[in-house]
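User: I'll paste a sequence; please echo it back and then give the predicted structure.

Assistant: Echoing your sequence first, then the prediction.
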Amino acid sequence: MTPALLLAHGAGGTVRANFSPLIPQLSRKRKVHAVDFPGSGTTPRATAPLELDDLADRLVAAADGEERFAIIGFSMGCAVAIRAAQRHPERVTALVLTAGFARIDDETRARMQKWARLLDGDRTALARYLMTIVLGEPFHRRMTSEQAEGFLELIALTVPPGTPEQVDLVLRADLRAEVPSLTVPTLVIGTKHDRLINPSTTRALADLIPGAQWAELDSGHAPSIEAPAEWFRQIEQFLDAQSQ
């Protein structure tokens, strides 16, 4: 059995929403642990602004007694994974960071701010906006009208109540000073058609991490929907190499 694995989800998501296609496959070789951050899933919503240190410690606590583990971070979860590696360096064996950032750029910030404003309004308008920034344009274009309507309905019904606090954390997060000191083996995966987190921002994250490996997915900001098989393959190949 290779070292255990922790999963860190993105803002406005849950472990299930962001990773469900991968979990059965990843679980074949290792124990997989995860926690929904405040306001997602069944975790109570926070009563104060979220902080990376707290989320990182919550994630590590979910390891359920495992001495060492790798972490897969997605979007906001990449920042949580990086902070966990900094706070618990003796326990984190590897990082896989998908669609992440050290600090968001101005274009991404504007998209996140619009997302935050729409949270207080009509859920259908919010869902339509999220669909345009979450799905890559090639994938979105291939959807039938029935698929698109079903996806819109799903988004509208499943917005986690803690999304405002999670989006706020993304807007505030800045890991540029600490990322260059990472020593853990790291794979950074860019999503080529991402319309939420600029692909160049994820590439900039990779460039800041000493020795980081780089890979790309033919996907927007929803790899679990758009490219789950290839996402799993890239993760598994990297993790297998770390266990040899």
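Strands lie at 4-8, 32-34, 69-74, 92-98, 186-191, 213-217. Residues 112 and 167 are 7 Å apart (CA to CA).
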